Amino acid sequence: MPFFTKSIFFTECDECDRRFSVTSGGVCERCRRILCARHLHGSLGRRIAIGLGAKMLCVRCRNGEPLDSIASSEVGKR
Ligand SMILES: [Zn+2]
Ligand SMILES: [Zn+2]
Fold it and tell me: Measured in angstroms, how far is the CA atom of residue 30 from the centroid of ligand 1?
Protein backbone atom coordinates (compact mmCIF):
# COMPACT_ATOMS: atom_id res chain seq x y z
CA MET A 1 0.00 0.00 0.00
CA PRO A 2 2.22 2.84 -1.18
CA PHE A 3 -0.17 5.61 -0.14
CA PHE A 4 0.26 4.58 3.48
CA THR A 5 3.37 6.73 3.63
CA LYS A 6 1.15 9.72 2.98
CA SER A 7 -1.63 8.75 5.38
CA ILE A 8 -2.73 11.41 7.81
CA PHE A 9 -2.32 10.68 11.50
CA PHE A 10 -4.55 12.29 14.04
CA THR A 11 -3.68 13.29 17.56
CA GLU A 12 -5.21 15.44 20.28
CA CYS A 13 -4.17 18.97 21.11
CA ASP A 14 -2.82 19.34 24.66
CA GLU A 15 -4.45 22.74 24.91
CA CYS A 16 -7.97 22.27 23.58
CA ASP A 17 -8.29 18.44 23.37
CA ARG A 18 -9.44 18.65 19.79
CA ARG A 19 -8.32 16.08 17.30
CA PHE A 20 -6.22 17.41 14.48
CA SER A 21 -3.99 16.00 11.80
CA VAL A 22 -0.33 15.96 12.83
CA THR A 23 0.57 17.65 9.58
CA SER A 24 -1.31 20.82 10.55
CA GLY A 25 0.03 21.17 14.10
CA GLY A 26 3.17 20.01 15.83
CA VAL A 27 5.24 19.81 19.01
CA CYS A 28 6.46 22.94 20.76
CA GLU A 29 10.26 22.94 21.12
CA ARG A 30 10.08 24.48 24.58
CA CYS A 31 7.18 22.89 26.49
CA ARG A 32 7.00 19.72 24.40
CA ARG A 33 3.25 19.80 24.19
CA ILE A 34 1.52 18.49 21.11
CA LEU A 35 -0.63 21.28 19.77
CA CYS A 36 -3.02 21.99 16.93
CA ALA A 37 -2.16 24.68 14.44
CA ARG A 38 -4.23 27.24 16.32
CA HIS A 39 -2.44 26.76 19.64
CA LEU A 40 0.99 26.13 18.22
CA HIS A 41 1.14 28.85 15.61
CA GLY A 42 -1.72 31.17 16.55
CA SER A 43 -1.69 32.85 13.19
CA LEU A 44 -1.08 31.98 9.60
CA GLY A 45 1.85 34.38 9.37
CA ARG A 46 3.63 32.54 12.16
CA ARG A 47 3.04 29.23 10.46
CA ILE A 48 4.72 30.55 7.37
CA ALA A 49 7.65 31.79 9.48
CA ILE A 50 8.12 28.27 10.88
CA GLY A 51 8.02 26.94 7.36
CA LEU A 52 10.87 29.32 6.63
CA GLY A 53 12.93 28.04 9.56
CA ALA A 54 11.67 29.89 12.66
CA LYS A 55 11.61 27.98 15.95
CA MET A 56 8.55 25.89 16.57
CA LEU A 57 7.19 27.56 19.69
CA CYS A 58 3.60 27.51 20.87
CA VAL A 59 1.57 30.64 21.51
CA ARG A 60 2.04 30.45 25.28
CA CYS A 61 5.80 29.99 25.11
CA ARG A 62 6.08 32.94 22.77
CA ASN A 63 4.11 34.96 25.32
CA GLY A 64 6.79 34.12 27.86
CA GLU A 65 4.58 32.04 30.14
CA PRO A 66 6.65 30.03 32.65
CA LEU A 67 6.90 26.34 31.91
CA ASP A 68 5.47 25.27 35.27
CA SER A 69 2.31 27.29 34.77
CA ILE A 70 1.84 25.63 31.40
CA ALA A 71 2.48 22.19 32.91
CA SER A 72 0.17 22.70 35.90
CA SER A 73 -2.73 23.72 33.68
CA GLU A 74 -2.27 20.40 31.98
CA VAL A 75 -2.22 18.45 35.25
CA GLY A 76 -5.43 20.10 36.40
CA LYS A 77 -7.13 18.83 33.30
CA ARG A 78 -6.48 15.19 34.05
ZN1 LIG B 1 -5.60 23.36 20.21
ZN1 LIG C 1 5.28 25.73 24.23
Answer: 16
